Amino acid sequence: MRTTVLTGARSALLAGPLVLAFFSGGYFDGPRVWAGLVAWALVAIVALAAGRPFPTSGPARLALAGLALLAVWTTLSLTWSPIAGTAYHDGQLVFLYLGTLLAAVGLLRGRALRAVEPAVAGSALIVIGYGLSERLLPWLLTFSHSISAEGRLEQPLTYWNAMGAVAAIGLVLCTHLAGEQTRPVRQRLVAAAAAAPLGVGLYCSFSRGALFACAAGLVALSVLNPTRSGLRAAGVTVASAVLAAACAAPFTGVTSLHGSLHTRDVQGTVTLVALIVIATAAVLIQRRFCQREHDGRLGTGRVGLPRHAGWIALAVVVAGFVLFLAVGARENSGGQLAANASRLTSLQSNRYDYWRVAWRAFRAEPLRGIGGGGWAVYWLRYRPINAGAQDAHSLYIQTAAELGVVGLALLATLFTGVALAARRAFATAPQLAAGPIAGVVVWAAHVTVDWDWEMPAVTLLAILLAGALLALCDVSSAGRTPPAEAARPTLQPA
To answer: Are residues 31 and 102 in the same domain?
Structure first.
């Protein structure tokens, strides 16, 4: 009975972000409240049924303490926020993340750790596949659309940049799964095939931030998993994603929902056939690689990297982001960018105006911030352009504005705990930890320029990956053998 209950709880935990995605990503009050109740019900199950329900390692406790205090501080900010109701809802959101992270650390033990990466990648594939389905089969499916999306990929999350972030996380995880030798060959082949639709989804979001975050995740993965099998798989998945996006790019009926129904029918059919061909080719190539690796005809060992490769990769990502911001800040933000591929040729954005107003708010209340939801009030008062916005489009900048130095310190505590746990987990089980670390890097890069924190269906994917790292850190701290290292399966061709 106990095993059945825990298995059901793990299934609910891993399926949670996917279910929430079909309720506008959990952005609105109702779905978010229900998700929070489920998360804390899972915590109760962990406390009652799990043998070791809560973490014992220092990094895991540090991360949970940081998130718990951030939840309390966010909720307390309703006492000084200009919009107390918004601050209360912000606090609810952080308590949802805290409950999910607690449940993840308690439930993701043993073989469940190996299920996290495929579950998150699978959720991303389903979400993106659903969004693409009406574009590939317009004669069969039609979804509702917001005017602001202007044809960009938005369903089911209802926000195109969030869809781009999900596609980026899924593509990076599939790249790792395809190259991980400890995985069954069938799973590696499915991951290779999934890269094609994920690549089209990433392109159809026209999200520059998601493209940058995906690149950051791939750079991190190349350092975390510098094996010959991993690099070959990366070549297959990235080439598949790029080729699939290139095939879809000329068809505006697919990428932007433009044109008559007949035109969209033809373009959707052509793109669907191209996706099937590309995915099949990726499977065949990856299957050939797996066979040759198994026979010993292809090397699978590590590729030599420069000393301090991790720090070099971090410097490259940070420098690229700084250049991204510097160039964009110099562009004229007076015009409106079109919602098509032309967006990818410019770094123009209203975000720089959002951030200037956030800086003004931070200077007004540097210690405690102006309170949850307060940035929206400042934007209405001091906005330099006639544009509506509820968020500063950056987790770090909005935290500084609304929760001050205290909020930033608590967020930094959470990140520090996860980073320390990731380091210990990677030292113990590099193959098992590399994918989740790269996935968290994608999310951490994207929240720099967007409001994924307010979109639970996106952030919960990162919470699950972080929870796996905290749980793996606990395993290594207790001196037990991680499941990835206990038994390396013999790879047999599918």
So the answer is: yes
Q: Are residues 262 and 235 in the same domain?
A: yes
> Judging by beta carbons within 10 Å of its beta carbon (0-12, 13-18, 19+), is residue 159 exposed, middle or buried?
buried
For residue 210, CA distances in Å to 123, 179, 217 come to 17, 23, 10
CA dist 284 and 281 (Å) reads 5
Q: Can you give the residue range of the structural domain that contains 234?
A: 119-350
Q: Which two tokens stand for residue 404?
A: 């001050």
Are 458 and 161 in contact, with CB atoms under 8 Å apart?
A: no
Domain count, the chain: 2
Q: How far apart are the first and last CA of the chain?
A: 35
Q: What span, in angstroms and rounded, lies between the C-alpha atoms of 13 and 107?
A: 8
Q: Give one DSSP letter per residue of 356-405, joined into a string.
A: HHHHHHHHHSTTT-S-TTHHHHHHHHH-SSS---SS-S-HHHHHHHHHHH
Residues 316 and 385 in one domain: no
Does a structural domain hold residue 368? yes
The string of DSSP letters for 78-96 reads GGT-SSHHHHHHHHHHHHH
Q: Is residue 310 part of a domain?
A: yes
Whether the Cβ atoms of residue 20 and residue 460 lie closer than 8 Å to each other:
yes
Report pLDDT for 492.
43
Do 42 and 170 share a structural domain? no
CB atoms within 10 A of CB 366: 14
If you count them, how many residues does the chain have? 494
Residue 447's closest CA among 401, 393, 491? 393
Q: Which of 335, 350, 365 is the last residue of a domain?
A: 350
Residues 341, 381, single domain; the answer is: no
- Check whether residue 324 and residue 373 sit in a common domain: no
Round to whole Å and give the CA distance between 362 and 266. 52
pLDDT per 10-residue tile (average), the chain, 494 residues: 89 97 95 96 91 83 97 97 94 97 92 95 98 95 88 95 98 97 94 98 95 95 92 96 97 94 96 98 96 85 81 86 72 62 76 94 97 95 90 95 98 97 93 96 96 97 97 75 52 41
Residues 54 and 165 in one domain: no
Domain limit, last residue, from 308, 329, 350:
350
